[in-house]
């Protein structure tokens, strides 16, 4: 059986810069794949290509066996939902209106019967039900992320792409979001998340894709990818990897630099 | 069915905020009717509202049995009503076009004038005035204006595209540049023109409804109605584009296609008005802003409301324009600019103070 999502030799160039170089990997339904790497490694670019926003210069992405280059926007919207880093609107839609936009791809389909239930459930899961009538632009950055995540959940697609879903969130809400992503995988959804925090990736992701200068440096189970010498090289900073004494997963600790400033 | 069930059904049938829009729509319609009665009744010959209503009802085939003076009937139906219909078309077109363009550009400064509709229309008309050709008789002038509006908008759109994409900032800046070129050409035409031509040029650049006859109004009305019916089909897509261009694509909107269609439709409705009334500033900019504060940003409600609001504003402005310096008439564009500018400033300050931000 072919995997749910495949990226074959995907390259992406802007002018002379090659932001993605021969990137290939697969993702299955029911699996959380974390995309990690240093700033400028091409994580967000990869997510744009997977979402169908940017056509790759070379290579192809298939979802459910079909090339996404041949899909219409509305077909894609019924297959995958995307959480961008931030939603820039200044128009005063209420939080609930923003969440309800997640149901737009299902307009005039039998699935639209689920609209209200999907919206209510998504807002409940992300704990934003009480903000329903507040204007979206007046919410804090973290609250906006949660409302946008509710919009993504209400879309009810078999593939979910997230760009740093936890970066604006406090500790409790980071845990909430990662638990939600686990719930999605348990229901057979394929989840691909760009994560800045290596330890979140180590704790929650079944597999980790490590990008370095637009190339795949490693891809596999967290234990294999999050390895001290590789990470030290990719991030250009010495790290230690220890084992979480309770869960047993790897934990990544950056070493303190030698105090060159003091002499 | 228990009460809760009915309420659920009711909520299901209506979008959350549209419920609050009901009274706003009722008010807008009442204001429109009042504005029509005032515009039809006030002038050199005064006609009381009841008689105006009688004339209108007679015309649509409802007999009221009330006798109306022939002269007054002629004034109301022959002179004032074409002008009123034109005001409604121009105002509704500008209002809805403004709301639509603000949505697809995700920019509060967007309005038909910005992407070249107004200056293109004026330029088309002025070329005809200066050269003095009229190959198609009376309709040559509005046709040239309409073509100019469409042409300049498409040039702006075409110049702003690269690699099959349109950067919105590039589009707006291209509009600014082309407007400046068009403004220069209009100035040049004014410099070369004789006195009679200069008066015509002033008419185009300041706007006026004085040229309204049924013959001139009907094509405008036809085009405007088409636009007013078609633009709201993209209201949901506009909502998503306003949320974010990427988000709109993620949610299934073909943003490039919607954008092109909305620009063409907005140019049609706004350009049809420009073709007979010249440049009327500020309506397309102010009306959507004002209504967004009252009824929120949902374009399913905002688009029809902006059409109503634009019609009311233009009727009011025209009433002022033709009654304040009797027996002369102020250019309409002068009135909308003098009312619209300070009002917009007040709106801007109030909104910034109360909401800490725009829109």
Describe the structure.
The complex is a heterodimer of chains A (263) and B (359). Chain A has 263 residues and is of the alpha/beta class. Helices cover 31% and strands 27% of the residues of chain A. Chain A folds into 2 domains: 1-64 and 158-263, P-loop containing nucleotide triphosphate hydrolases (Rossmann fold, 3-Layer(aba) Sandwich), CATH 3.40.50.300; 88-156, no CATH class. Chain A contains 9 helices and 12 strands. In chain A, the strands form 3 sheets. Chain A has a 6-stranded mixed β-sheet with strand order 6-7-8-3-9-10, sandwiched between helices. A 4-stranded antiparallel β-sheet of chain A has the order 2-1-4-5, covered by helices on one side. Chain A has a two-stranded antiparallel sheet with strand order 11-12. In chain A, a hairpin with a 6-residue loop joins β11 and β12 (250-254). In chain A, α4 packs antiparallel against α5 (141-154). The longest helix of chain A has 16 residues, at 171-186. The mean pLDDT of chain A is 93. Chain B has 359 residues and is mainly α. Chain B has one domain (28-355): Orthogonal Bundle (ABC transporter involved in vitamin B12 uptake, BtuC). Chain B is built from 15 helices and 2 strands. Chain B is globular and about 65 Å long. The chains are: A alpha/beta (263), B mainly alpha (359). At the A-B interface, α2, β6 and α3 of A face α10 and α11 of B.
């Amino acid at each position: 059986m072919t995997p749910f999502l495949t990226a074959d030799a995907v390259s992406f160039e802007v002018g002379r810069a090659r932001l993605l170089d021969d990137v290939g990997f697969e993702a299955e339904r029911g699996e959380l794949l974390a995309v990690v790497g240093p700033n400028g490694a091409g994580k967000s670019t990869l997510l744009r290509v997977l979402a169908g926003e940017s056509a790759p210069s070379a290579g192809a992405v298939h979802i459910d066996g079909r090339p996404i280059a041949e899909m219409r926007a509305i077909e894609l919207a019924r297959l995958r939902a995307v959480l961008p880093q931030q939603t820039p609107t200044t128009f005063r839609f209420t939080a609930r209106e923003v969440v309800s936009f997640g149901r737009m791809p299902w307009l005039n389909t039998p699935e639209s019967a689920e609209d209200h239930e999907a919206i209510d459930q998504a807002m409940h899961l992300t704990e934003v039900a009480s903000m329903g009538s507040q204007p979206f632009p007046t919410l804090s950055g973290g609250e906006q992320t949660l409302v946008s995540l509710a919009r993504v959940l209400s879309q009810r697609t078999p593939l979910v792409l997230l760009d740093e879903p936890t970066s604006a969130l406090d500790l409790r809400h980071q845990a909430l979001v990662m638990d939600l992503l686990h719930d999605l995988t348990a229901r057979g959804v394929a989840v691909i998340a760009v994560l800045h925090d290596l330890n979140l990736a180590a704790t929650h992701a079944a597999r980790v894709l490590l990008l370095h200068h637009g190339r795949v440096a490693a891809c596999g189970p967290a234990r294999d990818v999050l390895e001290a010498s590789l990470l030290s090289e990719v991030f250009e900073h010495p790290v230690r990897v220890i084992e979480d004494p309770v869960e047993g997963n790897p934990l990544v600790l950056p070493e303190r630099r030698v105090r060159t400033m003091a002499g | 069915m228990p009460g809760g069930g009915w309420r659920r059904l009711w909520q299901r049938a209506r979008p959350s905020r549209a419920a609050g829009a009901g009274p706003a729509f009722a008010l807008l319609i009442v204001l429109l009717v009042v504005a029509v009665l005032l515009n039809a009744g006030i002038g050199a010959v005064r006609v009381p509202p009841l008689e105006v209503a009688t004339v209108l009802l007679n015309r649509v085939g409802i007999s009221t049995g009330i006798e109306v003076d022939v002269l007054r009937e002629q004034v109301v139906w022959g002179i004032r009503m074409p002008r009123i219909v034109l005001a409604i078309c121009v105002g509704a077109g500008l209002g809805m076009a403004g709301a639509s363009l603000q949505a697809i550009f995700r920019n509060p400064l967007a309005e038909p004038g910005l992407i070249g509709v107004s200056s293109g229309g004026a330029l088309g008309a002025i070329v005809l005035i200066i050269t003095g050709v009229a190959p198609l008789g009376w309709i040559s002038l509005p046709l040239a204006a309409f073509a100019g509006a469409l042409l300049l908008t498409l040039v702006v759109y075409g110049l702003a595209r690269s690699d099959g994409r349109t950067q919105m900032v590039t589009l707006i800046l291209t509009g600014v540049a082309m407007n400046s070129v068009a403004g220069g050409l209009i100035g040049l035409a004014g410099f070369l023109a004789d006195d009679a031509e200069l008066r015509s040029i002033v008419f185009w650049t300041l706007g006026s409804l004085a040229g309204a006859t049924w013959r001139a109004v009907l094509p405008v009305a036809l085009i405007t109605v088409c636009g007013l019916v078609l633009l709201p089909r993209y209201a949901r897509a506009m909502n998503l584009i306003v949320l974010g261009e990427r988000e709109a694509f993620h949610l299934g909107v073909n943003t490039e296609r919607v954008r092109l269609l909305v620009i063409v439709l907005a140019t049609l409705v706004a350009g049809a008005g420009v073709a007979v009334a010249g440049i009327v500033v500020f309506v397309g900019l102010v009306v959507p802003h004002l209504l967004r504060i009252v009824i929120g940003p949902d374009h399913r409600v905002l688009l029809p409301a902006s059409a109503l609001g634009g019609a009311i504003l233009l009727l009011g402005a025209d009433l002022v324009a033709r009654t304040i310096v009797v027996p002369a008439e102020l250019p309409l564009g002068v009135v909308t600019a003098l009312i619209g500018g300070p009002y917009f400033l007040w709106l801007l300050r109030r909104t910034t103070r109360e909401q800490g931000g725009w829109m």
